[in-house]
Amino acid sequence: MLEVTNLRKVYPTGDEALTGVSTTIEGNEIVAMIGPSGAGKSTFIRCINRLTEPTEGEVTLDGTELTALDSGEMKTARRNVGMVFQEYNLVERLTVMENVLSGRLGYVSNWAALRRNFPQEDVEMAYDILETVGLGGMENKRADELSGGQRQRVGIARAVVQEPKILLADEPTSSLDPDTSHAVMELLTEIAAERNIPVLINIHEVHLAVEYADRILGLHEGELVFDGPTTDLDENAKDVIYRGKALAGESSSNYVEGSDTVTGETEPTDKSTITGD
Amino acid sequence: MATEEGHSELPPDRTWRRPTAFGNHRVKWAVYVGATLFVLWSLVSLLADVSLGRLLTGVNNGLLLLEAMVPPNTASENVDRVVGYMGETIAMAFVATFTGVLISLPIAFGAAENIAPRPIYYLSRGIISITRAIDELIVAIIAVKAVGVGPLAGIVAISYLTIGFFSKLFAEDIEDIDMGAKAAIDATGASRFQALVYAVVPQVAPRFVGLTVYRWDINIRSSTIIGIVGAGGIGTLLLRSFERYEYDFAALILLAIIAVVLAGELFSAYVRRRVQ
Amino acid sequence: MKRVAAFLVAMGTVVVSWLHMGLDVQYIRTAPAELLDLAVRMFPPDWGYAPEIVVPLLETVHIAVVGTIIALTVSVPVAFLAAENTTPNRITYAIGKLIVTVSRSVHVVIWAMVFVVMFGPGAFAGMVAIAVRSVGFVAKLLGEEIEEIGFDQVEAIRATGASSSQVLLYSVIPQIKPALVGIGVYRWDINVRSATILGAVGAGGIGVQLFNSVDAFRWSAVLTILIAILGIVLLSETISARTRAMVR
To answer: Contact A127/B12, CB-based, under 8 Å?
Structure first.
């Protein structure tokens, strides 16, 4: 179970990317985080495994307070958090197998890592996961020989082989064509069910979020303005998330309390729901 | 390098080893061990008789040398000598670039696979690899023995060195041209030479200028050095100043060389940007 | 029009250069004959001399090997200084660039003259000269490669919980290894060639025998040495080219 309490991030430039976000993710739910570009979605995900250092707030994973760990302990704790990236972030000059096995680095010595000498169980697990993501037999290809969809599958395999307690995906479909995007989303939902872990996905395409997620988090200018089941995401809610527009008398438990974006800011924003990065 | 293997064989091998570019791991280790042993041999044979004391003395000598060099001797007769020899150095580079490029042209066309007849192609390629293998100072000293001490030897040496470099790179440029244009000219019934002039030359002219200037820049560097073996230019003066322990004068010469080399590099970079 | 002008200026400079040197035309007319004469005197090569040059030839290769290894070791930190994305600040960047420029703009023979003064004549001075001359070359190319490192790849490995040295092993090194090996063998190949001439200033290698034979007018021995140099240079060129084709 992932508990995030009052997470705040201020960049050295003075930009406040997150203004104090709290939420809980558990079970094997698929949670999609949506919101316009620059709303703080990536910052939120990266603060969970502290690739970005949060300014304030707590992140707790299965009882371990990640935000209280020193950097050595955090390295160990990162094994429990799998991460999938928008640009796949594979090590281009290594083979598919090395990329997948790099998910096990946290469990082996430096010397074994240098010699590419991973325990037999790890290798077998890597073969199994490659089979699951549909890349059986590709283990000796180099990452730079693969297509975008194949690379993202390797990225997912690398995260899954960690045997994480939660899977984070930062815009996993943004660099892919529509068909491949669907395949990747399906794969992520299958993994959640099969391994019984929650998956938190940052995503631009609202229709993909609606199709695959159990629950939606809506972020607007660093503030969590929506948190509820996918079925509750109506046009009004989208307006709040994407335009920060005041809601006309509508009141629902899904709108996060204490949100002041609804009032106050009246300048018409130009942000569209389909902005790409 | 990735090897593609069929994946359908029945009992799948569940172990994994990183594929190696050597094709097999035994060859890989043999190469690694061989290379390591050779390196060890090199280290031992070069460093065995180098004691810490000798190193320290060397560093100390270096400091003394530096002290003797600073400040550089800028007496006016020295400056005059540097200017005079530097003039000869630069003049050598200009003339040698001209003659070298002139001689290279037919060889470059001969070494272009797409326009040269086979026998000429192999002959030209042969000339290129031989001219490239011997270092400039060796060529210079042989030129000195052949035509006597002085800038003429330098011109002969640098021209010779220009041939291998220029022909090779220019031939590659000629190979990159669009053959469609040549086919079109050929179709008009033009002779081989006419096709060359009308279809090939216009396409490679900018690269020709760029390469010439680039080689001129390299030739400036060479002509500052070859005086060490008597082939003219400022190298003569540098060697003499070292032999006479006039290190403050040597410092002046070194600064002049660095300045001219950097100026040549900047000029060549500027021209190449303009023409390409 | 501008092109014609530039061409005329260039040609004018060549003519002025020619006149400036005040060369005696007599020499030029006799030069081809002299060169031919020299060629005749070189033949046939003195094969009896061959055994004597085996050791100096090996020394030449040793100088290139050790010089290149030292240059590679030194140039890694220099490259990190001279790369915009890894240098700590503007002063370190300037220092990195300065080392690269100074090392590159001084010819290996000049470096050899300096190190012969410092360490005395011999292969050691030559090796140091080769190393110092190569640092700038290697650091420049390696620095350019470091500027290309994808930090997203580094981050992804960090996210798996890898230790710092594992991050280095699995994301930084795979990215610069081909460049490091490629630049290394390429420079080694150039250095074999350079090491053949260090003898001109007493800094070891086959050049010592070569220049002695030239001074003694033993032309057939000179040809033997030249053939040996040609062989070793072509061999190192082949090794270098094949290694670079293999590592990518």
So the answer is: yes
pLDDT in tens for each of the 248 residues of chain C?
Answer: 777 888 888 888 888 888 888 777 677 777 778 888 888 888 888 888 889 899 999 999 999 999 999 999 999 999 989 988 888 889 999 999 999 988 988 889 999 999 999 999 999 999 999 999 999 999 999 999 888 888 899 999 999 999 989 998 999 889 988 899 999 999 999 999 999 999 989 999 999 999 899 888 889 999 999 999 989 998 998 999 999 888 87
Superfamily of domain A1-80+168-173+198-277: P-loop containing nucleotide triphosphate hydrolases (3.40.50.300)
Q: What is the ipTM of this complex?
A: 0.84
On whether residue B28 sits in a domain, the answer given is no
Neighbours of chain A (3+ CB pairs under 8 A): B, C
Looking at residue C211, its amino acid is F
User: Among C23, C62, C200, whose Cβ lies nearest the Cβ of B229?
Assistant: C200
CATH number of C49-246: 1.10.3720.10
Answer yes or no: is B251 within a domain: yes
In which region does residue A264 sit, left (phi positive, over 0), alpha (psi from -120 to 50) or beta (all else)? left
- C-chain residues within 8 Å CB-CB of A152? none
> The domain spanning residue B202 has which CATH number?
1.10.3720.10
Residue of A nearest to C176 (CA): A93
The residue behind tokens 């490629």 is: C182
Tokens 């590592």 appear where? C247
Instruction: Quote the CA–CA distance of C200 and B142 in Å, as a whole number.
Output: 13
Which of residues 85 through 104 in chain A touch C, CB cutoff 8 A?
85, 87, 89-94, 98, 102-104
Please name the chains neighbouring B, where neighbouring means 3+ C-beta pairs under 8 angstroms.
A, C
Q: Which residues span the domain enclosing B220?
A: 76-275
Whole-number Å distance between alpha carbons of C158 and A223: 28
CB-CB under 8 Å, A51 with C161:
no
Q: How many domains does chain B have?
A: 1
Query: C70 to chain B: nearest residue by CA?
Result: B43
- Rounded to a whole number, what is the distance in Å from the CA of A166 to chain B's nearest CA? 27
Q: Which residues of B touch A141 (CB under 8 A)?
A: 2, 4
Task: Provide the residue ranges of all domains of chain A, joining segments of one domain with +.
Answer: 1-80+168-173+198-277
pLDDT per position as a tens digit, C29-68: 777 788 888 888 888 888 888 898 999 999 999 999 999 9
Picking from A135, A140, A144 by the largest number of B CB atoms within 10 A of its own CB, the best residue to mutate is: A140
